Structure formats: C-alpha cells, structure tokens
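Lab meeting, item 3. Inverse folding demo.
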C-alpha cells in the first residue's frame, strides 16, 4: 500500500462522501456544502489556529530585541545564534510554535480542495476516478452524483473569470 493509497483511504474518500451526503441535506447546493464544511473544519481547527496566532504574536513582541541582537552581533554569527536562543528561551517562545499548527492544518485544506475537485467531475474519466472513492454502503451517495455545480453566479466546475471570489478571499484573509 502506497502513501497515496493511505491518503485516499483515510482522508480523501471520507471527505468526498461527506461532501456528497452533506450536499443532499443542504438542498442539493454544493456551494452551500463547501461553505458549511469549511466552517466546520475551521471550527475544529480553531485551537490550532489560536495556538499559531499566539506564537506569532509572541515572536512579534520580541522582534525589536532580535533586531538589536542582529546589530550587536552582526560580525559574530555564532554569538548571534546563541543570544537569540537565550532570548527565545527567556521569552518562552519558539519559532516552531507557528510552524507546527500550520503543518497539521495544511494537509486538511489540501484534502478539502482535492475532494471538491474530484466531486465536481465533468468528464466521464473524472466520474470513473470519483467512483473509486464512493462508499457502496451509502446508497445516498450514488443517487446524488453528479452534483449541482452552480452556486450564485459561479459555475464551481470552471475557473472564476471575473476574479470576484479570489479577491473576496484575499480581502477576508487580510481582515482576519
């Protein structure tokens, strides 16, 4: 069994089936399904996000001291590293405090993206690929495919040519 098979079995297939079933219960609106599932995933990962934000703020709070150390020990790289370690230890922060939660969240968001792409199958080959991920024990799953791919003004199976959604995502990320 390869890593790809494990990824498909443990993460991708369950997410695909949940998307399809959730779409049924959300008035066959795949756009609404994506929104609801994204909110659920964000809520589940909120503790990791909060930890990451706290670590980022802690590192920002000592940024001035790090800059002073860089000026003071510009010529002595070894001493600079040693003093930075002391400063991080004294402040109780760690650069990995920001990275760890992000590394855990990243595969989840990749899986959500991949599952959305697979569920929005438009070509016959895509449906064959999708069929490998569907649970045969859930009859509702097969009755829902293919899903409705229109949401508001968007065709979810094609790129957004108006660039409204990417701009909206960028603005909301900046606000956060």
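The presenter then showed the designed sequence:
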């Amino acid at each position: 069994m390869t890593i790809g098979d494990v990824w498909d079995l443990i993460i991708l297939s369950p997410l695909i089936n949940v998307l399809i079933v959730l779409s049924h219960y959300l008035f066959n609106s795949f756009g609404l399904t994506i929104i609801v599932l994204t909110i659920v995933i964000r809520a589940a990962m909120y503790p990791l996000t909060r930890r990451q934000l706290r670590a980022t703020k802690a590192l920002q709070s000592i940024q001035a001291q790090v800059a002073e150390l860089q000026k003071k020990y510009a010529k002595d790289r070894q001493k600079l590293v040693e003093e930075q370690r002391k400063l991080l230890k004294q402040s109780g922060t760690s650069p990995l405090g920001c990275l760890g939660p992000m590394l855990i969240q990243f595969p989840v968001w990749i899986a959500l993206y991949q599952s959305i792409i697979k569920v929005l199958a438009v070509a016959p080959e895509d449906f064959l690929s999708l069929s490998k991920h569907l649970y045969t024990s859930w009859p509702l799953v097969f009755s829902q495919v293919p899903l409705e791919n229109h949401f508001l003004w968007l065709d979810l199976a094609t790129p957004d040519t108006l660039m409204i959604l990417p701009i909206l995502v960028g603005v909301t990320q900046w606000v956060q």
